[in-house]
Design goal:
Blueprint (H helix, E strand, L loop, with lengths): L1 H15 L2 H26 L7 H6 L7 H6 L6 H5 L4 H6 L1 H7 L4 H33 L5 H26 L5 H17 L8 H10 L2 H8 L2 E3 H26 L4 H23 L6 E3 L10 H9 L5 E8 L13 H12 L5 E8 L6 H8 L3 H12 L9 H7 L10 E6 L2 E6 L12 H10 L6 E5 L16 H4 L14 E5 L12 E5 L7 H12 L4 E4 L5 H8 L4 E3 L3 E4 L8 E2 L2 E2 L1 H6 L4 H5 L6 E2 L4 E3 L6 E7 L5 E4 L19 E2 L3 E10 L2 E8 L7 H4 L8 H12 L22 H32 L1
Parallel strand pairs: 3-4, 7-8, 7-9, 9-10, 10-21
Antiparallel strand pairs: 1-2, 3-5, 5-6, 11-16, 12-18, 13-15, 14-17, 17-20, 18-19, 20-21
Helix pairs in contact: 1-8, 2-8, 2-28, 8-9, 8-13, 9-10, 9-12, 9-13, 13-14, 15-20
GO molecular function, one term: ABC-type transporter activity
InterPro entries: ABC_transp_unknown (IPR019196)
Protein name: ABC-2 type transport system permease protein
Length: 763
């Protein structure tokens, strides 16, 4: 060890007495300064971020100065390592090493130790930006950044080991530098080669280095990637030692090849074993554990026990979603499941490619005057697809029934013989792939009873399959929207109270805007359902009090005559925007922040509700209007003809009125839950997609149905808000940092390097 340290000290002194080492440090610092200081004025002006530590340093899709510098670190190492061995060969001093009592392995380890020390200096330079960020970001996420810096150090060290080996292959330093550039560039971009071929893709990914550093940079420290870098370092140092030893002792070519192959075999075996899912250890360094699925998700996987889950992707080559999961994207696809594989390694992933018709294809076939088979061949030629890897329509239909899935990429989850679909989503949804809440809902459906919401169809009520503004498809039954109830774990169905029976065991019955009175038989079925403790939502509309009130009578609730109107500068009088009442927080604690912010729910045409405190139910308002701007307007009126005023003589009454109520009581050892609203449009397609007002209609409606399932669905996966979302920057502090990082620090590095070089030259 003493000799290794001595060699390292000598090599390090030579390194820092060369202008290249100092020049590269200054260039690196200036490169990072440009990206760092340019965003400071934006932060000072109040531009807010979530996870500001990550956004500023480790997110490559945002500012991410540490993440982005990873892609260019390979440019710095070759100029440092180019002479580390080749210098000895060109000067002839390598012969002295061969005859000296120093082992060649000690020489290599000493030179590598010197590179580790230089890499630490590079990390120190990068840390200057971290220190600056820590001064103006309250609640700075230190563990995350420490792991990110460790990732950069591992990458630099692996590059150094490769550079040392390449330097041992030639006596010319320039050739060593160029060759190292080529090798490191190859290791950087090899992960993009042959991604459409299974074996080649896996092999190339195992050799790709920056992608692994990127995962560490995100704050997820794991044994697989750390061991991988150690294995790469060990392999190339072993290559270097072998190369030097074989120069000193003549060996047959076959024996030399076998020795190199043995090193490769050991290295690949270590990386393969350490990459097996059960062998991987994880530490999420982020403050809010962003790289880890929530406790809720972990509990779902825990309940599934040791039984395997089979996830099969069905990808239609004739639909645009095919390009979200081509064979070349298999690695990214697996990575999306890794947070779940971390807690349940026996999730089996499969991919099935097929060709089949999609909605609207009939018009395409008619226009192109081609048969479906001819169109498939034509598209395959254009897109260079191998049709032998795609099942034909009749073949895929024998395997699975995908009717109703619009031909899109869909996943089928299978567990203990039960199956469910997990869908992908087109724009403008929040993402193509299902997020954690949608995944959890699908998994949870496999291990427990699925909640069923049934919509009544009598009286020309709003439907769950229509796209009109006043219908309920967006909320309930839209497969192409991730927030729709069908993708949040619910089963959706409809029933005619006039001609059918209310299904047993449902989570809730929805009566949405009945336009004609129920018959005595239908009303009797509803009353029996209520008496038996069934959950229910009745949504009425003003002007239809005579139809709705007979349904509300057993509940002790009544919709008052007239229509609630609201004075507004921008909107018509019949658009009412009640705020959350205290009862909404009792129903769903997750609404607490919105209650405090006085968030509104839009109701285009609402009535006022009254209730009896002495009735059979405990009643609490969920939504309530503003007493200063709202009143009950009696009789007919036209909202766009003239400004409406309160007409007390006509019976108008100003005040604060409830427009939604929650009712509860104990029936058969269960809490019965009922919601009554005086507007049936607040969870309609039109209101959920309203873009001219900030409302919480979708979230509020989903919380109502969550209440009906006693919190089981949708699955709650929210995380606490990160603390590092503000800065203390001022104009003067921004200017000071810019002066320091544009001039003072680079100037100091230049001055120190110059002084050392001059002193060295004088000696």
């Amino acid at each position: 060890m003493k000799k290794i340290i001595q060699i390292a000290r000598l090599e390090l002194s030579l390194l820092f007495y060369s202008p290249i080492a100092w020049l590269l440090m200054i260039v690196l610092f200036v490169q990072m300064s440009v990206g760092f200081t340019s965003v400071l004025p934006q932060l000072e002006k109040g531009k807010s971020f979530l996870f500001l530590t990550g956004e500023l340093f480790t997110n490559p899709n945002s500012i991410g100065i540490l993440a982005k510098i990873l892609t260019s670190l390979y440019l710095y190492i070759p100029l440092i390592t180019m002479g580390i061995i080749s210098r000895e060969s060109s000067s002839g001093s390598i012969k002295l090493l061969y005859s000296s009592p120093v082992k060649l392995s000690q020489v290599v380890y000493g030179k590598f130790a010197a590179m580790l020390a230089y890499n630490l200096v590079i990390i120190g330079v990068m840390s200057l930006f971290v220190l600056a960020g820590a001064t103006f970001i309250p609640y700075f996420d230190y563990p995350h950044i420490l792991v990110a810096l460790f990732a950069a150090f591992l990458l630099l060290s692996a590059y150094s080991a490769i550079g040392i080996f390449v330097s041992s292959l030639t006596t010319y330093q320039a050739v060593a530098a160029i060759s190292t550039f080529v090798v490191l560039a190859f290791m950087n971009y090899i992960g993009t080669v042959g991604q459409g071929i299974d074996f080649v893709r896996d092999l190339m990914y195992s050799l790709s280095m920056p992608s692994r550093a990127g995962r560490l940079m995100a704050g997820l420290l794991n044994t697989r990637d750390v061991i991988y870098y150690f294995a790469i370092i060990g392999m190339f140092l072993a290559f270097t030692i072998t190369k030097l030893e074989l120069e000193r002792v003549s060996k047959p070519v076959l024996q030399q090849v076998l020795r190199y192959m043995f090193i490769v075999l050991i290295g690949l075996s270590i990386t393969y074993i350490s990459s097996r899912q059960p062998m991987i250890g994880y530490y999420d360094a982020t403050e809010t554990k962003e790289n880890t699925i929530t406790k809720t998700s972990q509990e779902i996987l825990k309940k599934m026990g040791d039984e395997p889950i089979e996830v099969t992707e069905y990808i239609n080559g004739m639909e645009g979603s095919y390009w979200g999961s081509t064979p070349s994207q298999r690695i990214e696809d697996i990575a999306r499941w890794e947070p779940y594989l971390r807690f349940k390694p026996n999730i089996k992933l499969k991919w099935v490619y097929y060709n089949d018709t999609v909605p609207g294809m009939g018009a395409i076939l008619a226009e192109s005057k081609k048969t479906f088979e001819e169109l498939v061949i034509h598209m395959a030629k254009l897109q260079k697809l191998n049709l032998r890897k795609f099942l034909r329509p009749e073949e895929i239909r024998k395997q699975i029934n995908l009717n109703g899935e619009n031909g899109r990429l869909v996943m089928q989850l299978k567990y203990k013989g039960k199956t469910t679909f997990l869908r992908t989503f087109p724009p403008p949804d929040k993402g193509f792939w299902p997020q954690e809440d949608v995944k959890d809902a699908a998994l949870k459906r496999l291990i427990q009873a699925v909640p069923k919401i049934v919509f009544a169809t009598d009286g020309y009520q709003c439907g769950i399959d229509k796209l009109g503004d006043r219908e309920y498809r967006t909320l309930a039954n839209e497969k192409l929207i991730s927030s729709s109830m069908i993708n949040q774990g619910f089963d959706i169905d409809s029933v005619s109270l006039e001609h059918g029976e209310i299904p047993a065991g449902i989570s809730a019955l929805v009566i949405g805007d009945p336009k004609v009175a129920f018959s005595a038989a239908a009303k009797a079925k509803l009353e029996k359902y209520i008496d038996d403790g069934g959950n229910l939502i009745i949504a009425g509309e003003p002007g239809k009090q005579s139809i709705v009130n007979p349904l509300l009578e057993p509940l002790g609730v009544k919709m008052l005559d007239g229509t609630v109107v609201q004075r507004s500068r921008d909107y018509s009088f019949d658009l009412v925007t009640p705020v959350l009442a205290a009862g909404s927080v009792a129903m769903a604690p997750g609404l607490q922040p919105f209650f405090q912010q006085k968030a509104v729910v839009s109701m285009p045409g609402a009535g006022a509700l009254s209730y009896e405190n002495s009735g059979p139910f405990i009643v609490h308002p969920l939504l309530i209007t503003d007493e200063q701007t709202s009143w009950i307007k009696m009789g007919k009126f036209t909202v766009d003809s003239a400004a409406l005023t309160v007409d007390a003589k006509a019976g108008d009454r100003q005040g604060s009125f409830p427009t939604a109520l929650m009712l509860t009581r104990q029936v058969k050892n269960k809490e019965q839950r009922i919601v009554v609203t005086s507007d049936a449009d607040f969870f309609s397609n039109g209101e959920l997609e309203r873009g001219n007002m900030g409302t919480i209609n979708s979230y509020f409606a989903m919380k109502i149905f969550s209440w009906f399932t006693y919190g089981e669905f949708p699955v709650e996966v929210s995380r606490r808000r990160p603390k590092d979302n503000t800065t203390t920057l001022t104009k003067s502090s921004v200017r000071m940092i810019q002066v320091l990082y544009y001039g003072v620090i680079p100037g100091a590095l230049f001055l120190i390097g110059t002084v050392l070089l001059i002193r060295r030259k004088r000696k």
